Amino acid sequence: MKKKYTMEEFEKMFDDAEIKALEKLDKQLEDVAKNELDGMKKFGFTMQNMMAILELKKQLFKEGE
């Protein structure tokens, strides 16, 4: 049986998935880069991913309209 979600429930699920995805991407970057990773590179990588996820969220939930 499929459960139907409200937009508020779906948005909460999306937010939780967003956090898990960013944490996973951060860990993968650390595993690959090892000693080559400095604070600014990590910051840039994280911000780039956050901007992409926020744009997706804006499109999905039509924020600001």
Biggest sheet character: none
Low-confidence stretches: none
Order of helices and strands: HH
Secondary-structure-based class equals mainly alpha
Principal-axis shape: elongated
Overview of this structure, please?
- By secondary structure, this protein is mainly alpha-helical.
- The chain has one domain.
- It starts with 6 loop residues before the first helix and ends with a helix.
Secondary structure elements and pairings:
Layout: H1 7-33, H2 39-61
Helix pairs in contact: 1-2
Q: Concise description?
A:
It is built from 2 helices and no strands. By secondary structure, it is mainly α.
What are the main properties of this structure?
65 residues; mainly alpha
